[in-house]
Amino acid sequence: MSSTAIQLQKSPQGKLAFTVKVGRNAFTADVSEALGGDDLGPDPHDLLDASLGACTALTVLMVAARKQIPVDDIQVSITHTEAEGLYTLNRTIRFIGKLSDEQRDYLLGIANKCPIHKAMHGRFEVVTVLAAPSA
Predict the structure, then answer these.
(1) Together in a domain, 60 and 27
(2) Same domain, 102 and 74
(3) For residue 80, what are the domain limits?
(4) Phi/psi of residue 88, nearest 5 degrees
(5) Is residue 126 part of a domain?
(6) Cβ pair 115, 59 in contact under 8 A
(7) What count of other Cβ atoms lies within 10 Å of the Cβ of residue 20?
(8) Same domain (yes/no): 66, 93
(9) Residues 52 and 86 in one domain
(10) Which residues contact 56 (CB under 8 A, 6 or more apart)?
């Protein structure tokens, strides 16, 4: 699976903020004032957590539409804890609509099959290279 290159550049606003460009979209990432930033956007942990939440909601909604399951809305809440090298994501999902218990259970299983959930249960490797200096 191919992905869009994500570009980050120091934002003209804020002490530590960066503009994040993903395809045609852009937003600001920052850290809280307590960490020396200006809280101009989500911090990297929030972005990681949000990727799971967004992927969950989008995946479940697409499957519900394809299976004609009457979902009016999906609400996903993500929190995390870190302790002794373990980053734990806590995900709560609410399905809005007239669903049977069987349909809710089915969609809950689909949530665990979203691509980000599956990636987080796989192995990660980060390869870092130094770009050539700009002229």
Answers:
(1) no
(2) yes
(3) 44-120
(4) -105, 125
(5) no
(6) yes
(7) 18
(8) yes
(9) yes
(10) 74, 76, 91, 93, 111, 114, 116, 117
**What is residue 67's predicted lDDT score, i.e. its pLDDT?**
96
For residues 30 and 88, membership in a common domain is answered with no
Report pTM: 0.88
Which pair of structure tokens corresponds to residue 84?
């002794």
Measured distance CA(40)–CA(92) in Å, rounded? 26
CA distance 105 to 90: 18
Which residues of the chain register pLDDT less than 70? 1-2
Domain count, the chain: 2
pLDDT in tens, 26-64: 999 999 999 999 999 999 999 999 999 999 999 999 999
- Write the DSSP assignment of 62-76 as a string of letters: HHHHHTT---SEEEE
CATH number of the structural domain spanning residue 89: 3.30.300.20
Q: Rounded CA gap, 71 and 87, in Å?
A: 31
Q: Are 55 and 70 in contact (CB under 8 A)?
A: no
Structure token digits, residue 134: 């700009």
4, 42, 67, 74 from 22: Cα distances, Å: 7, 15, 30, 24
- The first and second tokens of residue 128, run together, are 């870092």
Report the alpha-carbon distance of residue 84 to residue 29 in Å, rounded.
26
